[in-house]
């Protein structure tokens, strides 16, 4: 194939990327979008209104992506009326709103609107977050190929999503007893690794008709029907589950770690490494100069990600623990992450004094830069997939404190499969 033909094909191709409206998935999807842009392919990035507003407020994505004439943002209504990013307790509220409001609008865009075959540049490939199973239905209706992108970990995707119908059929879900240490034998490949407590949090539901179970079941049925599946992992890390997954999804593309690939492709060999922010919260870079003053591998980095929460009692227990450890600590306390009306005036004065001596607390941090800093010695993490993969890449051992979604499975694999940390359930 000659170069001119390749260039014409690239210009004619039009990829639509559609993430679910949460920080982690949008962050990864933007990296994927930029990597595709570099190849000369036209990309439309479709955000829902709720996530797009804070993204524009706290990042330079508009100016950064303006260098690509083959890129455009589009937004779609989602029926979510609150201005601030939500925590995990409102996950299903957001997903239900997207299903009710965004789905019909998206279908109209693809059938007769700005993305349709009658438009100036019709979409030729759909890359949705796999959680948006309705995109696959629209792809089939419009004869548009769909390659799903999965923002959760492959180990959770295989064990708790794709095998959820299998576990229900085998009687493993709902749990019949309260022994959470019983091994789950119906998931191929992990029969001697996975306990009930290690399954994704929704697997503990007593009601298999619960909305979250129905959402996951739709996703589990949709993924094998897509033309391909993009995963943020690499073969050597996830061979155990990728081998099994190919029986359902033969066209798997493990192109991760996404953040490392993105950094490598966008940083010129003679230039210093650059990290671009896709954060919907304002990043406090002052913590990096604080880290510069700390000895190598001494700092405990604490962050529970963009959706997880903790109670005041949990906050104080962790706070006392790190203060009594004698190790310096950098703690990210995302606005809204502490439930129950936290007031610092109720914190013991000696704990506050100890924190002034050895701690740094910020609302949000540039995590990739933090984990790459030589002062970091350990990561106290909620075990979200982006955080887990970023920590593995930088060789930072993890103390896992999983909360929901894929985090329980990730924590188990961190300790028992990859041997890069250990976990404790809440």
Automatic annotation (TrEMBL):
Q: What GO molecular function annotations does the UniProt record carry, in alphabetical order?
A: quercetin 3-O-glucosyltransferase activity; quercetin 7-O-glucosyltransferase activity
Q: What is its EC number?
A: 2.4.1.-
User: Which Pfam family would be a valid example here?
Assistant: UDPGT
Q: Which SUPFAM superfamilies match?
A: UDP-Glycosyltransferase/glycogen phosphorylase (SSF53756)
Sorted alphabetically, the keyword list is: Glycosyltransferase, Transferase
Q: Which family does it belong to?
A: Belongs to the UDP-glycosyltransferase family.
What does it do? May glycosylate diterpenes or flavonols in leaves.
Write the protein's name: Glycosyltransferase
């Amino acid at each position: 194939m000659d170069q001119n033909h390749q260039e014409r094909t690239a210009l004619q191709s039009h990829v639509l990327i559609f993430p679910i409206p949460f920080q982690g998935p949008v962050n990864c999807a933007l990296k994927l979008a930029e990597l595709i842009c570099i190849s000369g392919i036209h990309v439309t990035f479709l955000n829902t209104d709720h996530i797009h507003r804070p993204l524009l407020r706290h990042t330079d994505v508009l100016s950064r992506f303006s260098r690509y004439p083959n890129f455009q943002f589009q937004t779609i209504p989602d029926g979510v009326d609150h201005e601030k990013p939500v925590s995990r307790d409102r996950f299903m509220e957001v997903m239900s709103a997207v299903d009710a409001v965004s789905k019909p609008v998206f279908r109209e865009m693809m059938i007769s609107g700005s993305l349709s075959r009658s438009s100036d540049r019709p979409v030729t490939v759909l890359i949705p977050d796999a959680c948006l199973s309705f995109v696959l239905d629209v792809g089939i209706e419009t004869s548009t190929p769909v390659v799903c992108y999965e923002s959760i970990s492959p180990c959770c995707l295989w064990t708790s999503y794709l095998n959820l119908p299998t576990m229900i059929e085998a009687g493993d879900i709902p749990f019949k007893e309260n022994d959470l240490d019983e091994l789950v034998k119906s998931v191929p490949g992990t029969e001697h690794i996975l306990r009930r407590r290690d399954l994704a949090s929704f697997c503990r539901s007593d009601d298999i008709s619960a909305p979250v179970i129905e959402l996951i079941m739709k996703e589990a049925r949709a993924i094998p029907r897509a033309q391909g599946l993009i995963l943020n992992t690499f073969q050597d890390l996830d061979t155990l589950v990728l081998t099994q997954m190919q029986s359902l999804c033969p066209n798997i593309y493990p192109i991760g770690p996404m953040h490392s690939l993105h950094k490598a492709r966008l940083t010129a060999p003679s230039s210093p490494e650059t990290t671009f922010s896709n954060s919907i919260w304002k990043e406090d870079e002052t913590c990096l100069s604080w880290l510069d003053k700390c000895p190598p591998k001494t700092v405990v980095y604490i962050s529970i990600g963009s959706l997880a929460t903790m109670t005041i009692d949990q906050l104080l227990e962790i706070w006392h623990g790190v203060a009594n450890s004698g190790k310096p600590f950098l703690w990210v306390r995302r606005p809204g992450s502490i439930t129950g009306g936290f007031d610092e005036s109720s914190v013991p004065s000696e704990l506050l004094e100890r924190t002034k001596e050895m701690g740094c607390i910020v609302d949000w941090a540039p995590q990739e830069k933090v984990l790459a800093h030589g002062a970091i010695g350990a990561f106290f993490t909620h075990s979200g997939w982006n955080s887990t993969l970023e920590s593995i890449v930088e060789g930072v051992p993890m103390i896992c404190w999983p909360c929901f979604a894929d985090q329980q499975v990730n924590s188990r694999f961190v300790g028992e499969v990859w041997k890069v940390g250990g976990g404790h359930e809440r």
